[in-house]
Amino acid sequence: MSAAPPGFQPPPSPPSASATKPKRNPLLVVAIVLGALVVSCIVFGVIAAIAIPAFINYVKRSKTAEAELQLRMLSQAAQDACHRTGAFPPAGPQPLTVGPEKHVGAFASDPGFVELGFVPTEPLYYRYQVTPTVDGAVLVAEGDLDGDGVFSRFELRCYAHCACDPTPTVTHELE
Questions:
Q1: 15 in a structural domain
Q2: pTM, rounded to two decimals
Q3: For residue 172, which phi and psi values (nearest 5 degrees)?
Q4: What is the Cα–Cα distance from 99 to 147, expressed in whole angstroms?
């Protein structure tokens, strides 16, 4: 190897990877993080604005399912009693109190409900009643699902020939 001529300087070595990184501005990092948080909050707010009313509506609909099911069972019991006795017995209203919470009715102490064989023991959102009319009877399920004094009402008409309409008339279903 020969010696380097006088005044010769070797080429500089390439810079290391750490030396080529640009310096980060801490304010820029904070601004990006805060921007991401704001966007996340906005997205969460939009999702909540859509989901919460849908969930409330779902809960109300699940409560109305009780009225439809119990009224269907009461209708069958009323038709059976009419076939046995030739008339629809008066019954109810039970439970006496209705509201956003479930209540237990005294169905077993109501002679009409006992005659019908309709004696629910579980707490209910709706009150049930059978009212005989000159041409049959009216079966009613009535409840106040949100405690605002507006009642949702499911009503089935039954006729003197011991048959009931298959579908109730509904007023203020989700009140």
A1: no
A2: 0.73
A3: 55, 50
A4: 5
